[in-house]
Amino acid sequence: MHNEFMQRAIALAMDNVRSGRGGPFGAVVVKDGAIIAEGANCVTAVNDPTAHAEIVAIRAACRALGTFQLTACDIYTSCEPCPMCLGAIYWARPAHVFFAATAADAAAAGFDDSFIYEQLPLPTEQRKIPMMPLMREQALAAFRAWLDTPGKIPY
Amino acid sequence: MHNEFMQRAIALAMDNVRSGRGGPFGAVVVKDGAIIAEGANCVTAVNDPTAHAEIVAIRAACRALGTFQLTACDIYTSCEPCPMCLGAIYWARPAHVFFAATAADAAAAGFDDSFIYEQLPLPTEQRKIPMMPLMREQALAAFRAWLDTPGKIPY
Hints:
Strand order of the largest sheet of chain A: 2-1-3-4
Number of strands of chain A: 5
Oligomer: homodimer
Strand content of chain A: 15-25%
């Protein structure tokens, strides 16, 4: 079954290029042996820089399941997730991830995946996009309010 | 102006907790000295694990601008971005990012930010969510098709 699901993710990637809709990336979410959601990169088609295949598929799967977690689901993606999508995967918490092409393959095709992986561990002040701290003390009040709130939904 | 924009991001975070809508996180996108989009965490409210404040604000800003890039925009976020949001920021390519609370503050309030930062540099086989390679050769065909496509929109 693994190869069948990955074959579908790769077909979504290929169709996305051929249709001119977006980049060469596709993903599917599987639960109980069946595909419950699919996604392909549509960053330029819908003007959304977060619309990578995995994010599109995760959001669609959560809509289908009516939940904000992908418990007991597997994700098959035609390419190793970029840092954004890897972060989304950790928040969605699927059981397993299968990937085909690598981040280095994506970089060789002109995508920033490897560059972003290099940027993340850097101290904020050394990153290519300048990141500056401001008003930390004031922001901590929101965390205190969160911790003091009874009956909140953790995520 | 910096403090005014951050104050708004923090107010969004605080309002989000008080209304019970979601976590203690808010963000705004600024262009030409004005806020063009706002976001607050609504992961549990809309069943979308990617609906962090920064992602919500980036998507709204791109909708407002009709573009998939935040060129010459600044992002003010009430907390240092998690890896997912930091990745989204690199793809959106704003000019600057200002953050208030730190990733460690978020971790102290019960959020996975620091854990995910620790996971990202690990080899795929050592990560807490198992990530397995599969069918790389087949997936490379989609990259070749992308590279061979004339007139494509890079992103």
